[in-house]
Amino acid sequence: MRRRQTGTVLVITLTAAAALLVAACGGGVTGVQTTRFKQPLVLKVNAASAPTRQYAGIIQNQLKQVGIPCEIETVEFNTLLEQQTKGQFQLTTGRWVGGNQDPVYLYDLFRTGSFRNRGRYSNPELDKILDEAVGAADRARAKELWVRAQEMTSRELPQFPLWYSDQMVVARKNVQNIRVPVDGDWRFLRDVTVEGGKGGPFVVVLESNPATFDQLRGTDASSERMRQLMFNSLVRKNENFDYVGDLASEIQTAPDGLTYTFKLRDGVKFHNGKTFTSADAKYTLDTLLASDSPKSNDFFEGTGAQRAPYVKSVETPDPLTLVVRLNKPLNKFLSTFVSFGMMPQGYTPDQQKRAPVGTGAFKFVKYDESQQIVDLAAHDAYWGGAPAVKQLRVRTILDANTLQAELRSGGIDIAQVANLQPDTYEALKQDPNLKVEQFPGVNVVYLLFNATAEPLSDARVRQAIAYSIDRQAIVKELLLGQARVANSILPEQSWAYTPGQVYNFDPEKAKQILDEAGYKAGQ
């Protein structure tokens, strides 16, 4: 399941552009500088993602040009996710899907002890800024604090944002009305139509298996996709990344920030025919708060014995009103509702694992684990309007070559994934039965450092690595313009965005930083 590569660039099929890029970065590993570390760094990447393996090989080469030896280890995706969660890595890559659109995510990523702080980074000064930012009711003050947090993390560099990936969609020519939102939410599939109709299931594809159908627990990208198809939250993000009602038709916030009143949509139906009420919303929230799910962490402050709830009470004065009272103001309160959907009262998480029931546009039919296929059906009573597609099949295809073959043969109707190489999209454009569409994206690809592992515990080493990577060339030559260089985890559209310290490609500066840090060539 794992393959480690040493001494040479990862053996992959490079496009001509990528080969030129490697040459421009020093002509391959034959021109390697004298190494500065006794042991090479190990970069762990997703074995199933061809683009990741490809850009990892180029990053490996660029690091070697400044004297940083690097090995690449390819790891099965779920194993890699587990290793990242446990901090079992030095250097790894990843892609944040969705959550990075809110500045509160900075708290989740960089606050000491946060469940998403996979790099084990800790900075008491930053913790104070993040704590105040989360509790700031005044938006102007909150923005000032989030900007300070970005500036600090851009210097300390616990994570290095590489680029924002555009959303590439490959579809059959007869698939119409494809409108992928900037956050990539899969609910766009509700509006997709098929010219001339579709005799069998409409097939979409995932690039990795969902970790779980229990949407209160699933945090991986594939589990979130399934949640988006089958569930609605009380709150969602709009195109400007502000929080608006989803199943809530109106949200009222008390002046002191201690009481939130949600007026619920009338007439919303669950997949089992039950009408959605405030009792279901209370049951869902109570179930989450009583669990040890990572999604519950945002509703608490502190850890261990110091863990204390923000939520004081959850009340249901009538079937269409939910009132949540807090012990203290929480700036990110509305954002905490986006990541989980409403469940019918009494329907347990164990039942959700086997047969999810939500209010979303599509309802669960069956899961064939051996074939990695999830079958869904249109929820004709969906409050937002019934989907045009009546049978939806979600297939998991790990191998990029298999995916390409399935697209060409008509086995897949639409694919919005990240495991196809950029030049593959260019080739698929030439297929008379397919079309490729490109939509702006804000999901950020990043390099994650384990801040407790030497020599990466030294921020200067992390900075040198950042200066060693020619992101603009990778975006242009390897990714073929299907991405944009990122200077923050937050997207540029965010109200709290600032680039902070910018790391333009400068290998000489990288060498200087390493020299000053005591990591001299040939030592």
Structural summary, described in words:
With 523 residues, this protein is α+β, with helices and mostly antiparallel strands. Helix content is 28%, strand content 23%. The protein has helices at 16-24, 50-64, 77-86, 104-110, 124-135, 139-156, 221-230, 278-289, 349-354, 400-409, 422-428, 459-468, 471-478, 507-516, and strands spanning 3-5, 41-46, 70-75, 91-96, 159-172, 175-176, 193-194, 202-206, 235-237, 243-245, 248-253, 259-264, 300-301, 308-309, 311-318, 321-326, 362-368, 373-378, 391-396, 414-415, 434-449, 483-485. Strands 1, 2, 3, 4, 5, 20, 21 and 22 form an eight-stranded mixed sheet that branches. The longest helix has 18 residues, at 139-156. The two termini are 35 Å apart.
Offer a few descriptive terms.
523 residues, single chain, 8-stranded mixed beta sheet, alpha+beta, 22 strands, 4-stranded mixed beta sheet
Q: Span from first to last CA?
A: 35 Å
The number of distinct β-strands equals 22
Q: Give the class from helix and strand content and strand pairing.
A: alpha+beta
Q: How confident is the prediction overall: mean pLDDT? A: 89
Helical percent range?
Answer: 25-40%
Strand residues, percent: 15-25%
- Overall geometric form: globular
- The total count of helices amounts to 14
Largest sheet: 8 strands, mixed
> Radius of gyration, rounded?
23 Å
Q: Spans of 5+ residues with little confidence (pLDDT < 50)?
A: 1-16, 23-32
Described by its quaternary structure, the protein is single chain
